[in-house]
Write a structure and sequence with these properties.
This protein is of the alpha+beta class. It has one domain: Peptide Deformylase, CATH 3.90.45. The chain is 28% helix and 29% strand. The chain has a five-stranded antiparallel beta sheet with strand order 1-2-3-6-7. The chain is globular and about 45 Å long. The two termini are 32 Å apart. The model has no long low-confidence stretch (mean pLDDT 95). The protein binds nickel (II) ion (NI). The site of nickel (II) ion has 5 residues, from helix 2.
Length: 175
Amino acid sequence: MAIREIIILPDKQLRLVSKPVEKVTAEIRRLAEDMLETMYDAPGIGLAAIQVAQPLRLITMDLAKRDENGETAPKPRVFINPEIVAKSEEMSVYEEGCLSIPEYYEEVERPARVRVRFTDLDGKVIEEDAEGLYATCIQHEIDHLNGVLFVDYLSKLKRDRVMKKFTKAAKRAGE
Ligand code: NI
C-alpha cells in the first residue's frame, strides 16, 4: 500500500466526470487500498478516486465511531460505481469538509436518506439504505465522481470567496 497525493482546489481534475470501473482487477484493488491508506493518513472519512487524480468511479469510506476509550476499530468500505437510486424528500443539514478543500467547513443541505447501489471488491452488486452521516458522506463522494464539490451548494458569494482563497494559495505555492 502507498499514500497517494491528494489534489487540492482549484485543480481542474476535480471537475472531471469519472469513468465507470469495468472490472474489479488487481489494479483496482490496489487503488482502493492506497485510497484507504491515504484517507486514514489525511485523516478523512471519505475519499473519491479523482481526489488522487484517478478519474474512476471508486470511493473509500470509514465512518467508524470512537468508543468510550477514544479508540476506533477501523471499518474500511469500498464503493465501486456507486449510484443513488432513491432519495428522501426530507432534507438534513451537516457541516461538510473535503480533503481537496482543506480546513474549510460549511453547512450543506441534502436529502436525509438515500438508497445507494454499488459493487463491492468481490464484484457483488449491493443496495443499502443510508441515513445520517452515511447519507451525507455517500452523496458528497458520489458528487466528486460527477465533478461536483460541496462548495457548489453554497451561495455565490461564499463560493467565490473560497475559490479565490485557494487560487491565491496555489499561486503562492507555485512561486
Ligand atoms: Ni470531498
